[in-house]
Amino acid sequence: QVQLVESGGGPVQPGGSLKLSCVSSTTVSGFYAMAWYRQAPEKQLELVARILKGGVTTYADSAKGRFTISTSWLRNTVDLQMDSLKPDDTGVYYCAAKTAPKSSVDAFDYWGQGTQVTVSS
Question: 36: which residues sit within 8 A by CB, 6+ positions away?
Answer without folding.
Answer: 20, 22, 47, 48, 49, 50, 69, 78, 80, 93, 94, 95, 96
